[in-house]
Each structure stands twice: as structure tokens, then as C-alpha cells.
Design goal:
Chain lengths: ~110, ~110
Amino acid sequence: GAGVSQSPSNKVTEKGKDVELRCDPISGHTALYWYRQSLGQGLEFLIYFQGNSAPDKSGLPSDRFSAERTGGSVSTLTIQRTQQEDSAVYLCASSGGSTKGYTFGSGTRLTVV
Amino acid sequence: ILNVEQSPQSLHVQEGDSTNFTCSFPSSNFYALHWYRWETAKSPEALFVMTLNGDEKKKGRISATLNTKEGYSYLYIKGSQPEDSATYLCAPIKDDKIIFGKGTRLHILP
């Protein structure tokens, strides 16, 4: 597609439920990042996919968080047993290379009640 | 861990004035540096990608310089306008991984 697409744009979930957030990057982009922005905070790195390499999961805050990228394209971020502190805007970004800018999706606003 | 420092954290500038702010990063193994503008309720938008020492990039009233030997980049805004109000993020690349600074939050005062 023309840009990075994220769905849903908004998600309200009950504490303890699992959620899945989807990112559809720009076609052909090999690099894909997940970030989150909690209220009043900057960008917090979560996970990084680059081509067929093993993902860099060093930013995932707990084992309740996982992500996969199927076929080198669409990525899904899963949060199990959601907690209120998981409430944030989750942003996905993709790029065709380090010397090119990253294109961000419009994000998923997750609210855990 | 790549230590990225942006200063100041927050800045108030009168409309029409020019301003600048700084990004500092470790100079070793430098690969590239990105600048992004992040407006409230929107996604970060790429401004510049810089790779060479001494690089200077310009986009309208906004420009940026890069010193890879001493590990810093400046972003300049000439004749600030209300639409310049945003958070400006600096993001160096190391080991093919982008690391975002916490940003400089710019407020333009009418």
C-alpha cells in the first residue's frame, strides 16, 4: 500500500483480556519496528524485525508481549492478560533501509479498563 | 545501548523568531542520523536522513547539520510559525538499528 496501515485505530479492552494489534507495512520494506507512547512519554522501543533475521525483542516490557511477522510483511503485536499500564498508543514503522526515513502508521490507541 | 541526548527538553519561541536545538550521540560506528517531527495526535514524520560528516540538509525554513566526528547534530528553524509546534526527534542508526531520543518539544507563542 501507499503507507503503513495499523488496525484497529482504537481498542478498549478489559483488564486481563488478550489483544492483537496489526501492522501492514509498505510493500517491500524489510525493516519493521513497534514502539509505544504512554501518556506524556516519548517513544519506547518494543521490537524490531529486519528481513529474515531473528527479531530484536529487547524492548518488550514483559513476557505478556509478543510479536510476529509473517512472510516478511504483516506484523502482529499480541498482549496477553492486559494490564492498565499497557494503555498507550502503539506505533508501527517500516523502512526500506537505514539511509531512508521510517514511515510510521497512525497507531493503535489501546485503553485497558 | 546508544545514548542519545536531545536538548533542550522543551522550548518556547516567539512566532517569527529563529531557534535551534541539539542532538548528541556517540560518534563511534556512526552510520546515519534521522530527524523526525511529531505533532500532537499524529505520527512522527521524517524530516531528514543524514549520513556524511558536514552534511547540511534543508526543507523550507528547517535545516539540519551533522558532525559525526564529535557526535552532534543541530536542527534550525528560521522564522518560527505556529505550525512548527511539535516534538522534534533525533534518531541515530547503530548496528542497523534506529534509536530515538526523547525529543525537544517546541512551542511557538503567538
